[in-house]
Design a protein that fits this description.
This protein is mainly alpha-helical. About 45% of the residues lie in helices and about 5% in strands. A two-stranded antiparallel ribbon has the order 1-2.
Length: about 100
């Protein structure tokens, strides 16, 4: 949710060191990208499945930056923080490309 400033300001009071009170969040006035980020965060936390894979692959809904943030969140949820720490941007390449060491 930190990918979008407006979303983060509405969510930060519902996030603690070890928990997220996603049910208490009622974000408003989000653009399409921010809403997809919120909905996916809710899916990751609760196990719901409101965001379709087609939405994640739609460049009109998600910029490459948002896609990368979401991909990292899913990696952390599925494999833990140590897996995300192994991903690096490589200098001299397009910032949207990733290399795994």
């Amino acid at each position: 949710m930190t990918a979008d400033t407006r979303l983060w300001h509405q969510a930060e009071n519902h996030i603690g060191a070890n928990e997220i009170d996603i049910a208490a969040m009622k974000p408003r006035r989000l653009d399409a990208m921010a809403y997809v980020c919120y909905a996916l965060a809710r899916d990751i936390v609760t196990g719901s499945r409101t965001v379709a894979l087609a939405e994640l692959a739609d460049p009109s809904l998600l910029s490459p930056r948002y896609f990368l943030v979401i991909q990292t969140a899913m990696l952390i949820r599925g494999y833990g923080l140590s897996a995300a720490n192994r991903l690096l941007f490589t200098e001299g390449r397009n910032q949207d490309e990733l290399r795994q060491e």
